[in-house]
């Protein structure tokens, strides 16, 4: 006797051209119940134009996580203002870890905005700890996440490069950053970098 997995039964499924509902004439009640649910879900998604046909997230953004991330950022700022730069790095790092572990259904732009600020802030703390490679990595990540209206990150990237003696790359970073908005601090640093390049006989 053949098992149920070896039996194939073709069902006469039909799609209504007007409503796009799926039906199965003569099908069993269990199948029809499933199709009714499927049709209802299709109608809901079709009506919700804001979602552009994409199902809504299972839960809204968790305010507790957002609050915890903001708390770490604020704690980092407090430590930074007090001159505790290593503590500031630690607080910003905790905030970054929290933001990066947001559930995948939460809006990606929310996470990007959070971590680009935290990376930029941590870059400045690293600069004042003389951790120039770390500062460069953080500032570069912040710039990659947000180029416009992110002058501080552009400046910190170039500053880290300058302190590492990579003057040509620092100039390139500043010129690139100034394309996204004029900034007095970047202009001042650019003049310093170009002076260092000229002293080394490097033409730019």
UniProtKB/TrEMBL annotation:
It comes from Pyronema omphalodes (strain CBS 100304). This is Similar to Translocation protein sec72 acc. no. O14085. It comes from the Eukaryota. Keywords: Repeat, TPR repeat. The keyword Oxidoreductase does not apply. The keyword rRNA-binding does not apply. One of its GO terms (molecular function) is Hsp90 protein binding. Coiled coil: none annotated. PANTHER family: STRESS-INDUCED-PHOSPHOPROTEIN 1, TPR REPEAT CONTAINING PROTEIN.
């Amino acid at each position: 006797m053949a098992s149920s997995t070896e039996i194939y039964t073709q069902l006469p499924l039909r799609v209504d051209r007007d409503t796009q509902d799926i039906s199965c004439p003569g099908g069993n009640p269990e199948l029809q119940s499933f199709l009714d649910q499927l049709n209802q879900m299709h109608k809901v998604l079709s009506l919700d134009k804001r979602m552009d046909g994409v199902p809504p997230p299972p839960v809204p953004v968790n305010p507790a996580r957002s609050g915890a991330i903001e708390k770490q950022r604020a704690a980092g700022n407090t430590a930074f203002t007090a001159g505790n730069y290593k503590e500031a790095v630690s607080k910003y790092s905790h905030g970054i870890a929290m933001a990066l572990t947001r559930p995948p259904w939460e809006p990606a732009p929310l996470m990007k905005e959070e971590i680009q600020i935290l990376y930029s802030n941590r870059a400045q703390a690293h600069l004042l700890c003389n951790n120039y490679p770390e500062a460069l990595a953080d500032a570069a990540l912040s710039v990659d996440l947000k180029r416009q209206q992110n002058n501080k990150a552009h400046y910190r990237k170039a500053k880290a490069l300058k302190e590492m003696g990579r003057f040509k790359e620092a100039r390139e970073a500043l010129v690139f950053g100034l394309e996204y908005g004029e900034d007095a601090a970047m202009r001042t640093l650019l003049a310093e970098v170009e002076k260092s390049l000229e002293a080394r006989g490097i033409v730019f």
